[in-house]
Known about the structure:
The chain is of the alpha/beta class. The chain folds into 2 domains: 7-147 and 306-318, Rossmann fold; 149-303, Aspartate/ornithine carbamoyltransferase (Rossmann fold, 3-Layer(aba) Sandwich), CATH 3.40.50.1370. Helices cover 39% and strands 14% of the residues. The chain is built from 13 helices and 9 strands. It has a 5-stranded parallel β-sheet with strand order 7-6-5-8-9, with helices on both faces. The two termini are 14 Å apart. The chain binds N-carbamoyl-L-aspartate (NCD). N-carbamoyl-L-aspartate binds at residues 67-68, 142, 148, 151, 181-182, 242, 280-281.
Amino acid sequence: xxxxxxxxxxxxxxxxxxxxxxxxxxxxxxxxxxxxxxxxxxxxxxxxxxxxxxxxxxxxxxxxxxxxxxxxxxxxxxxxxxxxxxxxxxxxxxxxxxxxxxxxxxxxxxxxxxxxxxxxxxxxxxxxxxxxxxxxxxxxxxxxxxxxxxxxxxxxxxxxxxxxxxxxxxxxxxxxxxxxxxxxxxxxxxxxxxxxxxxxxxxxxxxxxxxxxxxxxxxxxxxxxxxxxxxxxxxxxxxxxxxxxxxxxxxxxxxxxxxxxxxxxxxxxxxxxxxxxxxxxxxxxxxxxxxxxxxxxxxxxxxxxxxxxxxxxxxxxxxxxx
Length: 322
Ligand code: NCD
């Protein structure tokens, strides 16, 4: 049986918000990975858990989601807790946001109903705004083009499971590095392990320069290129992202870059031996379906890792790892 973290370790996240990968410490990151392994062991061995018995999670999704919302909700159910949900898009509103209620007011109300709040919004900074309005822990499930720390946590957990280590790995990130929030979070975790990074994108969709500068300033080796094949020839991990259509200022701008890169058999053929391919999903057409049978294609395994990671986050932030 995988050991659960000590009381002293667990104190590192108790009562905390999880808003950005940038502000999570290395020790907090280790604690989450360790607790996720503990819960994954319980899931694999079909141990019924009651850690969050009697507790309620609010699942507030003001933007489309399948994996993040359902894996958070599944995580809460696996811990024996319950869930209340708002699931809507700006086009299809069902909560009082349709009546003009602000996020601040909505959160102040929901905070009185539940023990932990998970929020996704198309607005960068929304999770921070929610945290400012709530007493209970707030977990950012994606805020606009800002951060998506829980995705990056399951990405790191996946790397660890697939490769047995993170230190010394070279990670290529491909696609929409400008608007993709998952990579904006992932780089901050990889930085802790001193990983070399290669950013592969069309010139219009490069990683925000302030992030690249920050990484370089901390001694991380970062290469920027548009040559996918050269990158996969030396990378241990290829992290593919979707072009974030909904975040483009115009349809024309999206159309001009939409099929910039496709990872197909021809690309995989030049990959370094043992390279793994990750993708936060959903995939549109940036990875050919034929690549799914490549042993290093880890994206569906990656999505499943979302449940133990989110169980760890819910139980740790509320102090309920039992
Ligand atoms: C990502 C997101 O919402 O940022 N999806 C996810 O949470 N798994 C990536 C994306 O939508 O492209």
